[in-house]
Write a structure and sequence with these properties.
Layout (H helix, E strand, L loop, with lengths): L7 H5 L14 E6 L4 E7 L15 E3 L4 E3 L18 E10 L2 E11 L5 E2 L5 E2 L2 E13 L2 E12 L14 E13 L2 E12 L2 H7 L10 E13 L4 E10 L4 E11 L4 E12 L14 E8 L2
Antiparallel strand pairs: 1-2, 2-5, 3-4, 5-6, 6-9, 7-8, 9-10, 10-11, 11-12, 12-13, 13-14, 14-15, 15-16, 16-17
């Protein structure tokens, strides 16, 4: 349900997770009431994801039928008219005991260029999203669950292969401190095409529609040591039905209150080079950083 722009290039290159959310200019209004609270965010001009385009990381180009990089950089047509190509997001939420319940809605565009225009260039089709979530304590840890319907407004029938299919997305997660200063978090995430049969029927003969449902399991292990000056983490994404994944390893040491050193690796793997993580296998990397807070 988080439809604010993401910087995937930053994340896949090893920068801190806090930089995964890209900046955008927006107006945010919060209203608080006895029954529920409401947050509204209005973005007067569309901000897309900082997606993998071939400039820094290679990707699978379906038009070429191969992995491409700076020889085929994606330069999509971005909606950029102020107050016309705008975005509106809202969250209605309240606490019931120790649980937080929320409902979401969004109206804007697909955040990455998943559509094709009449001339064949990549575009950002119109999108609306409606969803809900809950989060609270259970079994000695924190349980979270989300569901969202991605309404691809330009092709609600699912018969246009140039426009992404509408989708149902679900997420269930659990996090718990298993040992002192050792936390384990796990999630199960799915993306399900809403009109998969219509999409498959509309594709040219021999074209691959992919999987109707993408399952992704993630696990994150975090260990603090040396009076919490040392942080070790391993984060793995794995899709059992698509057979691809992404392993992110990281170690950080706090030298002083101002200085911190970090290092780690991003390892991408997959059976095929046209799957989400499989296409990035040539982008596996190690990274190192020195950070100063002031």
């Amino acid at each position: 349900n988080d439809l604010f722009p993401k910087d995937f290039v930053s994340f896949f290159n090893g920068r801190d997770v806090e930089y995964l959310k890209a900046p955008s200019d927006a107006v945010r209004v919060s209203l608080f009431g006895d029954a529920a609270n409401l947050e509204l965010v209005y973005t007067p001009r569309f901000y897309p994801d900082r997606f993998v385009s071939g400039e820094r990381l290679s990707y699978y180009n379906p038009a070429l039928g191969r992995v491409a990089g700076d020889d085929a950089v994606i330069s999509p047509s971005v909606p950029d008219e102020w107050f016309t190509d705008d975005e509106l997001a809202a969250r209605l939420y309240r606490n019931v005991g120790a649980w937080e319940l929320a409902a979401y809605t969004y109206r804007g565009f697909w955040k990455s260029p998943r559509g094709l225009g009449p001339a064949g260039g990549f575009v950002f089709p119109e999108l609306s999203v409606h969803g809900a979530s809950l989060r609270g304590p259970a079994a000695g840890g924190i349980v979270s669950a989300e569901i969202a319907y991605y309404d691809s407004r330009e092709d609600r029938a699912g018969t246009d292969p140039r426009v992404p299919n509408s989708e149902w997305r679900t997420l269930i997660g659990f996090e718990r401190e298993m040992l002192p200063e050792f936390t384990v978090g796990a999630q199960y995430y799915t993306e399900t095409s809403d009109d998969f049969e219509a999409l498959r029927a509309a594709l040219p003969p021999g074209a691959d529609a992919g999987a109707r449902i993408r399952h992704t399991l993630t696990m994150r292990l975090t260990k603090l040591a040396m009076n919490q000056r040392l942080t070790l983490s391993a984060f793995n994404f794995w899709s059992p039905n698509v057979d691809d994944g992404h392993l992110r390893l990281k170690a950080g040491y706090k030298l002083t209150d101002a200085w911190r050193v970090e290092g780690g690796a991003n390892v991408f793997y997959g059976a095929d080079n046209d799957s989400f993580f499989g296409q990035f296998q040539d982008n596996s990397n190690i990274f190192f950083a020195v950070r100063r807070g002031f």
